[in-house]
């Protein structure tokens, strides 16, 4: 997720253009949140260049840009899901048209862990495309005046160009609802830039990053993200070295990670430091494009 150090004011102004949500008749419209209306939005269309076959290796066609995203209105977001669809809004094979990552950002809002990103990262999806839901009575506040953009990276693993939309579904409640506001807490083993390379070889590659917490946080929903070859993510208390929560990848590739909604919310005291640790299995024949991210939703104070 190669974000620039900062975003130019002119770029942020250009992102004000938003699209009208369009319902997808092929979409089962799952219950993504604790309650509320499901809205379906589309970003695009964009044409992904064809992949290239070089010997036995297929190099994907790449689309990676900062793009305008629709604003859902004056709402609380309580759930989120996403996918890649074609021009007829039919969901596509995620292994052929691959969602490397999509990150929705509220422009100019303060981010809890990265001041350089140009806004607050509040929803995201990767190859896992795992939906999330917040517990009853909680929501992430979005105002109709907010400018939203998307850090979007899609890959085409076919030999023909493909024209697609990035589709995201958001469960929302009105902004007037009596919900407790949450903030996104983005933890990343390579903070602010996300992407790193696991070199070829044998054994495990382990990376970690520390995050000092200046205020008390009650952690609700947690969404992990790894790439192929990822073994696990771990959230650790630095002082005690206690494992606060583990996120095993249940399948080497495609990855199989699950959103976690703890039965008992995880409380992180002010003044504590947490460690996010990502473990990958190295490949003897090639290097791996890697990420290790945990996006959580927290109540501050």
Average residue pLDDT: 89
Tell me the total number of β-strands: 22
Q: What is the annotated CATH architecture of the largest domain?
A: Sandwich
CATH topology of the largest domain: Jelly Rolls
How many helices? The count is: 1
As a whole number of angstroms, the C-alpha radius of gyration is 19 Å
Structurally, how many domains make up the residues?
2
Class by alpha and beta content: mainly beta
The multimeric state of the shown protein is single chain
Low-confidence stretches: 1-33
Separation of the first and last Cα atoms: 30 Å
Shape: globular
The main pleated sheet reads as: 6 strands, mixed
Task: Encode the helix/strand succession as letters.
Answer: HEEEEEEEEEEEEEEEEEEEEEE
**Residue share in β-strands:** over 45%
CATH class of the largest domain: Mainly Beta
Helix content: under 10%
Describe the model.
The chain is mainly beta and 301 residues long. The protein has two domains: 9-180, Jelly Rolls (Sandwich), CATH 2.60.120; 183-300, Jelly Rolls. 2% of the residues lie in helices and 51% in strands. The strands form six sheets. Strands 1, 5, 8, 9, 11 and 12 form a six-stranded mixed beta sheet that branches. The protein has a four-stranded antiparallel beta sheet with strand order 4-10-6-7, with no helix packed on it. It has a four-stranded antiparallel beta sheet with strand order 13-22-16-19, with no helix packed on it. Strand 17 and strand 18 (243-248) form a beta hairpin. Mean pLDDT is 89; it is low at 1-33.
